[in-house]
């Protein structure tokens, strides 16, 4: 049983949205916006845990945790910087596609590994680098179902942080920039108000006024020598 998003039991197979995300059908026409351009279902909401939806449906998932599913060689992938905030993807091999690090969602069987391959996925036998055990999130889930106690999807975060919300409320780094700018503006206005109240009774004099901007001095003209004076003709 899951007591909270970040605390999972030893026998838990990951967060409740993981299996629905892996099994969802992506890149099919949206049932609502099917006639619109770019209406492929390539989004998944971790809050609703329903079917995949298109970008036009994002309006119905305001303030929800949504990840975008992409494709590589006809296989579904998700970017590491989007998914690692919510689950531990250790032991799963990552790849670089279009300058972005990604992980595959489901297994990609490879019955015959290439020559010289010394490490393969423990579930589907795909060739891997030596430092990894699985080729996809689905294969890691399969390893957990086998009863491996060392595998988990629970994210190990600092104290007082919730992996689902990306941090605690006191964490300034997780505060939206707009809110931080508002706080800074309020502090600035408070400082100006204090300064103004301290100087309400003071009379301004000529010494307190800022000096006028000096005239611009053209050094090029200053270095130019005067010519010989000529008397005007009669």
UniProtKB/TrEMBL annotation:
Question: Which Pfam family, just one, is annotated for this protein?
Answer: PLATZ
Say which domain of life the source belongs to.
Eukaryota
Against InterPro entries, the record matches this protein to: PLATZ
Which residue stretches belong to region Disordered?
196-234
Instruction: Provide ranges: composition bias, Basic residues.
Output: 220-234
Recorded protein name is PLATZ transcription factor family protein
